[in-house]
Write a structure and sequence with these properties.
The protein is of the alpha+beta class and 100 residues long. The chain has helices at residues 6-14, 21-41, and strands spanning 47-57, 77-84, 88-98.
Length: 100
């Protein structure tokens, strides 16, 4: 099965927003909560999810992100989406871990 809706959530929450450092913490939590809630609605039986959201100011600089996980490559996986505007960027990553 495929994770749907992450890109839509980013667009809904960030379209037309300026980068405001005081609001970034709230934006990241709100986006992570909405993504998590939409995943729950899709009834992924026996899966646990970790949602990570990073928002930064768009200043034309590069950004590299990486992660390492210890998991079962047959059942566990991840999905990510990126949103970029003239003012900000956002990367949302969802890790799905099968609970035996």
């Amino acid at each position: 099965r495929r994770v749907h809706g992450i890109k839509r959530v980013l667009q809904e929450k960030l379209e037309g927003q300026d980068y405001q450092p005081d609001n970034v913490t709230n934006y990241t939590k709100e986006i992570a909560d909405v993504v998590r809630d939409r995943l729950k609605e899709q009834n992924w039986d026996r899966y646990k999810f970790v949602v990570q959201v990073v928002i930064g100011e768009q200043r034309g600089e590069g950004l590299k992100m990486g992660c390492r996980c210890f998991w079962d490559s047959d059942t566990d996986n991840y999905a990510e989406e990126m949103y970029v505007s003239k003012q900000l960027f956002c990367v949302a990553t969802v890790f799905g871990i099968y609970h035996y």
